Amino acid sequence: MRTVHSVADLRAALREARRTERTIGLVPTMGALHEGHLSLVRAARAASDVVVVSLFVNPTQFNETADLDSYPRDEARDAAAAEAAGADLLFAPPVDEVYPPGFATTVRVAGLTEHLEGELRGTAHFDGVATVVAKLLNMVGPDVAYFGQKDAQQAAVIRRLVRDLDLPVRVEICPTVREPDGLALSSRNVHLRGADRERALALKRGLDAVAAAYAAGERDPQAIARAGRAAMAQLGVEPEYLALVRPDDLRPVETLDGAGEVLVAVAARVGPTRLIDNTILRPPARVRTSPTSSGDAAAAAPAG
Ligand code: AMP
């Protein structure tokens, strides 16, 4: 695996692959690579001829300087992990390579970025994400770009960005990778100290309670959200939000009857650490009942 730090070197490194029409997969990251990131690299490896991992702690998407300053950074460790997972090229630009003096352009995905994370962190957060992702896609020119379901709102923003700007790339969203006890892997988990590590399970417990209420037939979003909040309260955690929204435009869901897939997004502070997680509620599959099926079997698998 090679590491490059400039856009010129990146393009030179990809020139031959482009000329010979080999497929390029891109995994954008902010480093501090864990199994969640590496699952994306492996997905890219399995499907692309050339795998590029970008490593850039994007200052414009941080709303707190302290969060930016304390963000874990270790390029040598990340390079070794990316290479072991199958990356061919690591693109690790310095800040002024991405934002040279006089940089003046912002990409904003209106409508998807004001609520949930945008409400807590300010819309500048997703403006920063959308702008840097648009730039990375233009710098690398991948056929496919890989992102994690862990950041569900970000995934929706990027899908819309790519669609609205006709960017010639396919967006792949990969499943959330978790610790054995259910905690979603995150670069911020290193900040969880002592009892906070146990309390951090509140997010997954809340989502599990939501899924259980839905599976038990509850269709009122407020009642479902209450079940999630109650499970979180048992670990002493109150969410900043626990919201049932449509996965594509992130609008709140009024009823789950006939709603299709619903994204349940949750955020909470656990000690000094801010965590997010989510799950998707999927309507039960329709089961075709044969003439010999009993009424009970049909009732156990209600049509969605
Ligand atoms: P980050 O470095 O936090 O910007 O994350 C880089 C990419 O990894 C994003 O597309 C994230 O959604 C994804 N990612 C982060 N954590 C996980 C996880 N636990 N499982 C799957 N993907 C993840």
List bound small molecules: adenosine monophosphate
How would you sum up the global shape?
A: globular
Please mark out the parts with pLDDT under 50 across 5 or more consecutive residues, or reply none.
293-304
Query: Strand fraction band?
Result: 15-25%
* Whole-angstrom Rg: 21 Å
End-to-end gap: 48 Å
Please state the average pLDDT score: 94
Widest sheet, order of strands: 1-4-3-2-5-6
- SSE class: alpha/beta
Name the assembly state: single chain
How do the helices and strands follow one another from N- to C-terminus? EHEHEHHEHHHEHEHHHEEEH
The count of helical stretches stands at 12
- Level of helix content? 25-40%
Number of strands: 9
Specify the biggest β-sheet: 6 strands, parallel
